[in-house]
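Pipeline run #58 for the internal structure catalog. This entry was flagged by the ingest filter as a single-chain record with no existing model, so it goes straight to prediction. Upstream metadata was stripped on purpose; only the residue string is passed forward. Reviewer on rotation: M.T. Logging verbosity set to normal.
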Amino acid sequence: MLTPNMHYSELKDSYLFNTIYRKTAEYQSSHPDKKIYRMGVGDVSRPLCDAVIKALHTAVDDQATMEHFHGYMPESGAPELRKAISEYYRRFSVSVSADEVFVSSGACDDLGDVLELFDKDNTVLVIEPAYPEYVDTNILCGRKVIHLDSGEENGFLPLPSEEIQADIIYICSPNNPTGAAYDREKLRKWVDYANRNGAVILYDAAYEIFIEDPDIPHSIFEIPEAKTCAIEICSLSKTAGFTGTRLGYTVVPKALERMGMKLNTMWARNRETRTNGISYILQKGASAVFTKEGLEQIQKNIRVYKENARVLMDAFERIGIWYCGGRNSPYIWLKCPDGMGGWEFFDYLLNEIQVVGIPGEGFGACGKGYFRFSAFGDPDDTKEAANRLCKLLGR
């Protein structure tokens, strides 16, 4: 008799964001006359920039001609796009070769697939609060997951301890959900720990484009020693509005080895087995992101989201609510007022002012009593939501 993967029984009944969608839809169904202000799930609201749209149209037209038609693409990505991404890293004074860049259908997919590089007996460290996929994908593999709590006392940026025994370490900076970001000094401590203990850091850099402070690295490879202990996973979802278009990339340095195995070579072989490549059309659109014109245009949308974050931060400062994030990040992480739990606060906001955020409990136990807002919404809706929050919660 077939034995199913029994680790599925260890997961929560519903993925966090699906629960948010369901509860919001139920409220909307019962209150069809109410407009809901959605600042929960971090989906973008601005359209793709002109450079990308033109490239996508050109690529579609290419597929209609014998001369320019493309079938299967290289499993690790089109050479043109891999080169463009490697050149993008020069902006951070980081040297990454094109064959260290692997194009994917998005960071979310790679965060799960990359685990195939590691034995299931490795121990995983997740810094909480954390993006739920870090935990769920490892539970499905049957790995032991240990949790490192963070809180207001360390700015939600904990540092390593030699008491920690971990083989795989997840770091997201700027962080989802807290918006906190490691500076070079603190990030170096994690790099040193990983190199000292033979661990590998899976560095989620999905929000690097929001960084403003010069002392906060855009890439873990700004710490030179990271090339022997880190894999960086990136996304165009928030950078260029590709949430519905789907494309990301992962950087696996050639210098990263464990037990005589080169992880760059392993990942290239994994891609040959697991994928037939990302579509020609999407890769042409992604290549346009990294042109001079594309990089200038995507910044217009980023400025809109940063202004949304400023509007929300101003509201919480007027109300007198503790928060972090917002600067260097599209997320604002706040302490629920009056000792409320996150789900209690969620229901309160939805029912009283039709504003949707994410309960902190959804990101781990130490998120209890906290709440996340996203700055990716429509600017007018964000302003209205901020006004409603001030009226409801104003002291």
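catalog note: The chain has twelve helices and 15 strands.
catalog note: The first strand starts at residue 37 and ends at 38.
status: ready for reviewer M.T.
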